[in-house]
Amino acid sequence: MTRISLTVDGASVSDDVEPRMLLVQYLRERLGKTGTVIGCDTSNCGACTVHLNGTSVKSCNVLAVQADGAEVTTIEGLASDGRLHPVQEAFRECHGLQCGFCTPGMIMQSVALLQENPKPSEEEIRLGLEGNLCRCTGYHNIVRAVQHASGQGEEVTA
Amino acid sequence: MIPAQFDYIAPTSVEEALAALAEHGDDAKILAGGQSLLPVLRMRLNAPEVVIDLGRIDSMRGIRDDGDAIVIGAMTQHAVVGSDPLVAEHAALISKAVEHLADAQIRHRGTFGGALAHADPAGDLGAPTLALGAQFVIAGSGGTRTVAADDFFVDLFETAIGEDEILTEVRVPKHTGWGAHYEKFVRVAHQWPIVAVAAAVKVDGGTISEARVGLTNMGSTPLRARAVEEALAGQPATDEAVRSAAARAAEGANPPSDLNGDADYRRHLATVLTRRAVLAAAGS
Amino acid sequence: MTATVERPTEAKEIGRERRRKEDQRLITGRTRWTDNITLPGMLHMAMVRSPFAHAKITSIDTGAAAQATNVVAVLTGADLAETQGACINAWAITTDQVTPAHPPLPADRVTFAGEIVAVVVARSAAEARDAAELVDVSYDELPAALDLKEAAEATADNGGVLAHPDLGTNKSALWQFDSEQAGTGGSVDEAIDKARSEGIVIEREYRQQRLIPAFMEPRSVVVDPTGEQITMWSATQIPHILRFALAATTGVPESKIRVIAPDVGGGFGGKLQQTPEEMIAFAVARRLGKPVKYTETRSESLMSGHHGRDQWQTLTLAATKDGTVTGLKVDLLADLGSYVALVGGGVPVLGAFMFNAIYKFPAYQFNCQTVFTNKTWTDAYRGAGRPEATYAIERLMNELAAEVGMDPLEVREKNWIRHEEFPFTTVAGLEYDSGNYEAATARAKELFGYDELRAEQKRRRDSGDPVQLGIGVSTFTEMCGLAPSRVLGSLNYGAGGWEHASVRMLATGKVEVITGASAHGQGHETAFSQIVADRLGVAFEDVEILHGDTQISHKGLDTYGSRSLVVGGEAVVRAADKVIEKARPIAAHLLEASVDDLEFSGGRFSVKGTDQGMAIGEIATAVFAAHNLPDGVEPSIDSEATYDPVNFNFPHGTHLCAMEVDTETGALKMRKYVCVDDIGNIVNPLIVSGQVHGGLVQGIAQALWEEAVYDDSGTLVSGSFVDYLLPTAADTISFDIDHTTSPATTNSLGTKGVGEAGTIASTPAVVNAVVDAVRHLGINDIQMPCTPERVWKAINGAGGGGTADTEGAAMPHFDQAEPGQDSTEGAGQ
Questions:
Q1: Cβ contact A20–B6 (<8 Å)
Q2: Average pLDDT, integer, range C580-595
Q3: Has the ipTM of the complex gone over 0.90?
Q4: Distance CA C827, CA C829 (A)
Q5: How far apart are CA C750 and CA C678, in angstroms?
Q6: φ and ψ of C427, to 5 deg
């Protein structure tokens, strides 16, 4: 067991963990942050994407012990003061989700993408989301949602 | 999805890391960015007893100008390399290859040295470092040694790094003013390249004075397309001349056959992608 | 042309782009996936799976695993014996279908790589996995039947390999339809003979590759045996059917089982199954008396969750020289894998009625042989039978067009059912209620810029451009809204096709609607709320949709086959209408008026010609108090309805796709995709757009990327997302979608199913485009998925058509040497 202390969604937490525990397992099983989910075992799907010290990472591809001392933000910490993050709002507005399983990772990556490139082109959005798989939406409305969140959205029409 | 148990060591200096490596030897596995190692551990394709995490060694991170070379710390994340102005100016081929390496999340976490030491022949960094004649700085208990790119890649997942050694930095000779392009062929974006070609060319007055061409996934290691390089030298940067030189791209290559294509198809791809990469690098 | 069904209430909600009620939870991570559930004392299971496609289990040594830290039990098939129940096949497609027993945890023989041979139960998932590595299973490897065509030919006598040697055959069932015998058309053999002498005969063999549904949420199951009922949470599309199967095969009374499908992360047919994992979890929880959980890894999911498609299609189309179709003969070989799954052989049969599609074939014959192999079982995947049929006919119509030298749209128009001919009884015996193929096609051509793209195609051909352009057409229809129970009965299906709904009027005026449909991403909560809000005249926000729990929704047949709206939605409409009728006498009583003087509109009963009235919510409150009700009237206006559809439902559409083919590399790039679907009246255009987009990409993915590939030993090569290629945002484009409207005449909302339409239509549109781009090079087929390698080889005459083999090897990125032997830094990409 290794002692780790970190900040998750603004709260300080400290636990003894096995070194083999993945960050995503720590979030889900120890902290009850079940908003972050596991979709694959090869780090292709991106469903587990969180922010680690301000940048997006796949939390299945980080050991909990590697996050010692870090600041982690999950989908559950994105809204502030009861107000949705603009990207969350945009996903709802543009119907950028269906089953919702990929959504936490998709939203977290979209937030990171817009931090790095506030006015991305459609192609830049598509490339920026290449590490996140969705099986429901065909990505069309996800791309619309990111455009919308960046202030570039056209009126949403079906 | 759950790795087997292991002990975890997080040294804060190269010396400590080497000591840990000396102590645990074969039982240890070094963790850099972890973007290839952790999937392997999760799927239990490997189960080291000890994992030595280099993530707390600050001296292994960063990029600096060292006269005739750019030096990239082995633990520098891809995203940092990809956005670094020094790299862009003096080793543009590296910037181009990093740009579409894996995906954004993995570029945030994965490291330059880790990817090279992993030595996946489909990895995006082998061909450009090979093409630019990079030098690999390897630390061991007896001090550091430098290995030329030509000698660094030994076989599939195998490099010149010894069992008790660590890759600490990579020196990339400056290719200031060279045109560069990394042409990557995939079926879907999140795939490793089926074949990719890294090309850097020096063009003087419409003539290619010198060319460096590296191939990704055309053998058990990244390869230099020397026949192409030789054929290009002194040639005009025209479609015709480049096409003729690029036809030799697969000479000496021994590409794999898998779900995405057989060896013959890969050989053919290498010629087309080489032509495109060189022309793009030459700006024509 | 068909008439619009008159709606008794004004549509304020229906047709509106309501944002989904479901989303608030999903975008903030306040979700309840099965794997999120943790119960006191809960144990975790890990599966030991066979690495062999076919082997006898000679011994299983569980000793070391049982001694491992915090292991509670290690159980084999012999241990669970009959307590494990069985995986059932609900649809014997013929009375003589050969159906091997399917124990969830077989004791003596494994029949595909990935089949479970033992289960380890421990206090944590990590410890269960650790101990699973210690279970020592000895196998006697047996020859494996792997190739579908070879398996179909194999017998005990000819030395062929049998998936189940004791059955003596790999053939499960031969299902046939012949229009001459059925009296729905003429003799197909005569039609073909005639065409051979004086017309055109197109003969083709197409491959429907094996696909994996690849829902994003891996399957997970939790079983809690404490309490009076055994409760199972499962990531399933079918809680009701699952409960029935659990009861029917374990002997536990149905009333003692509660199945809950909490948030379910996609299914696409892949969670339309009664799985071994669910059965084992149920048995283990009962045996140990403790809650247990099992969540599969993605690798396990790809390997052992059921697959889809996997057919060889031999097709003969007869036509006159002017391109008028005269007959169609379809011979299918369909790979079942090693068992007959829940729907199993019924999947290709669902396609039997759709090969004739929108065309007026005078003669039709369909023969489908289902075949066992030692591969993962197959069952429904989005479209289930209908994509296979649509692919075949839409590819053939392009071949016919090429043969007679017509534009592919013209040859279709020449043969399709004209809009004034509806309702139309097809050669397969179905009655299409409505449609307008002309309108959808005209609109699609306009949006696509069809003529301009054809001109560009010609320019590129003429100039020998290395990038060629192809235009693909698919004018599809499908049968959905499964299904009229009588029809299912006539097909020997084991259940009906009705759906149930109830409406509870709460004392505060809020409305709870219970549906037997079980959503897993479709947006039922929103769409059904819109329907009820209009029907009862209540606020959208005041309607709560409850589903997916057999204790709340005691009756239902779940969600698949684009049935939720057209069958489940109709049940909701009828239950709501019953509420109004039950409220009417009470309203009359309270308003001191005659029932005949009341009218119901906008949620209010009012007395004609006065300003007196009461809202339905006020009546609900009055009924709750029950102080002043008419004599003999029960204090409830809650109502329920079970709706059995009278017919299938026939959405259609015209899809146009432009593909660029890089002839130097075989690389493909989608340039434009237009679809105009006629799905009748639309409840929520936003939700419909999402269904269409997602459906399109799944169909496009079959055309271009996805394939479950096995090697010569029966190991799934495409066993992870590294090798089973799902497209990303970077591989797809924005789509141009629109709709024309011919309301369905068989339900009161005039709606048609939309869940599968995009998937069914898009695959042939894409492949037709790819073939169209290179047809001038002498190519008339490229096997799916159309990989760059196959395209390049087709162009260069090195195969790539119907016979190309896929190299049986995965990329080796995650094959690792032993620790410390070589390079030390295992990181990078």
A1: yes
A2: 97
A3: yes
A4: 6
A5: 11
A6: -65, -20
